[in-house]
Amino acid sequence: MAKKIENLACELCQSRKFSLFNEVSQEHLCQLTADKNCVYHKKGQTLFYEGTRPLGLFCINEGAVKVYKSTSNGKEQIIRLAKAGDFLGYRALLGEEHYAASATILEDAKVCFIPKESFIHLLAVDSNLYRKLMKSVCHELGLMEEKVTELSQKTVRERLAHTLLMLRETYGIDGDDNSRKIDIALSREDLASIVGTATETVIRLLSEFKSDGHISFEGKKIRILNPKALAKISDFYA
Amino acid sequence: MAKKIENLACELCQSRKFSLFNEVSQEHLCQLTADKNCVYHKKGQTLFYEGTRPLGLFCINEGAVKVYKSTSNGKEQIIRLAKAGDFLGYRALLGEEHYAASATILEDAKVCFIPKESFIHLLAVDSNLYRKLMKSVCHELGLMEEKVTELSQKTVRERLAHTLLMLRETYGIDGDDNSRKIDIALSREDLASIVGTATETVIRLLSEFKSDGHISFEGKKIRILNPKALAKISDFYA
DNA sequence: TTGCTTTCCTGACAAAAGTCATATTCCTGC
DNA sequence: GCAGGAATATGACTTTTGTCAGGAAAGCAA
């Protein structure tokens, strides 16, 4: 299953260019390359479990990962999706807490693991990185506050439309502006866990969006045909 | 209304002892005392508005403040409540963003305002404070993630019970363990904005909790008579 | 292929919560 | 004290959403 692979060179990593590590010095990157561990994970494997102690930082080189909390009623709430260039586990690491969520692979992934000491040392010598990380955590916090507001004030229908638009922003590929495919394999159940509703409700609403011509299905993926209509439904900035 | 008052000495401030500034050196505290501005605010006044640019950090010396986002349908979602010793505005400041929420006085308050430059300088020279702040922001993020999960998975009834228990933790005074009064003046509307529901629903549920003997009303305030029952209702850790 | 499992879909129904209308109570200023 | 307004309370009704049950389709292993 999880297969150790040869360390990818951080200094050459394409995913890094768009990540928080984009300004880290060559020297420090080489050190990271030496310190870290790279692993190939298949879909369904879990990177870490809620409640356990973080031993380092995960960095996604390729693939897709979901971060979610399990709830008492057996469901799960997806907190965020991580893709190439994203980091996982820094909140627990910097907050000196246990993981508050679990992380599971959605699409086969190459994941680098940077041991805690190595990461902490890097932060100590690269104050620019530390500052950027702080900025990023603050931004995340802002996003979460927005999500809280959305959850308590908007209907499932509005939230689903908004979620589709956000997924389009992040995972949209090919086609002109009016027809972009969301290139990530999300089950209806996953989608429901992001929106915060029941799977059946998502299925029903997607069918509706489809028959209204706002979206279409391509295999397991969704194509956004009419983003404006979805924006209107989601009550975006209105 | 807002009345400038003589600067309170940070180095002598009792509220500070339980705040993030509890380990800041005497020297730096004196500098803060010189740099800051203290203002007395009456209930209903607003410290800052969503969408504006942060010019500094607010520190609550006394009183209660609500931080909330206004939504398109005219309602508001309370993101957090701040009391003596709490800071406001650091997320926007450190994230280098505009305020994502507004802050309004719930109970007459003494609020100190530390200019941005002064705060940034303090962070630059006191790395321990910076680290503590990072830790705090990460912790906040964890709390928000929990709130997101709670909002999408629990009923209003469960959330209200949980909210009452949290308010009891933070604002509970006098009485033995089975009878603590929540010593903060929250209107039903405010409570609804915290829980994320309609005012009428809160009123109805509170009446129900009252007739079930779980709570009682003392003036505008609520006394928790049976925390265990509320914990059960809130499905806490179950 | 075949059979098996998982995911997706649909319908019927129930429960939860929001909305609207209307009292009633509580404050506050005069 | 009283008037007027705000906050609280309650009822009736509607809408939204969740739940349960059952079936179709798609993926997967042998």
Secondary structure elements and their pairing?
The structure is a homodimer of 238-residue chains.
Chain A: E1 3-5, H1 26-35, E2 37-41, E3 46-48, E4 56-70, E5 76-82, E6 87-88, H2 90-95, E7 102-115, H3 116-125, H4 127-153, H5 156-171, E8 172-173, E9 180-182, H6 188-195, H7 199-211, E10 215-218, E11 221-224, H8 227-233
Helix pairs in contact in A: 3-4, 5-6, 5-8, 6-7
Chain A binds a DNA duplex (30 and 30 nucleotides) through helix 7.
Could you characterize the architecture of this molecule?
- Two copies of one chain form a homodimer.
- Chain A is an alpha+beta fold and 238 residues long.
- Chain A is 41% helix and 26% strand.
- The first copy, chain A, has eight helices and eleven strands.
- Chain A has helices spanning 26-35, 90-95, 116-125, 127-153, 156-171, 188-195, 199-211, 227-233, and strands at residues 3-5, 37-41, 46-48, 56-70, 76-82, 87-88, 102-115, 172-173, 180-182, 215-218, 221-224.
- In chain A, the strands form two sheets. In chain A, strands 1, 2, 3, 4, 5, 6 and 7 form a seven-stranded antiparallel β-sheet that branches. A four-stranded antiparallel β-sheet of chain A has the order 8-9-11-10.
- In chain A, helix 5 (156-171) packs across helix 6, helix 5 (156-171) packs antiparallel against helix 8 (227-233) and helix 6 (188-195) crosses helix 7.
- The longest helix of chain A is centred in the middle third of the chain and has 27 residues, at 127-153.
- Chain A is globular, with a radius of gyration of 19 Å.
- Chain A starts with a strand and ends in a 5-residue tail after the last helix.
- The model of chain A has no long low-confidence stretch (mean pLDDT 94).
- Chain A binds chain B through residues 69, 71-73, 75, 77, 79, 90-92, 94-97, 100-101, 130, 133-135, 137-142, 144-149, 151-153, 195-197, 235, 237-238, and chain B through 69, 71-73, 75, 77, 79, 90-92, 94-97, 100-101, 130, 133-135, 137-142, 144-149, 151-153, 195-197, 235, 237-238.
- The structure holds a DNA duplex (30 and 30 nucleotides).
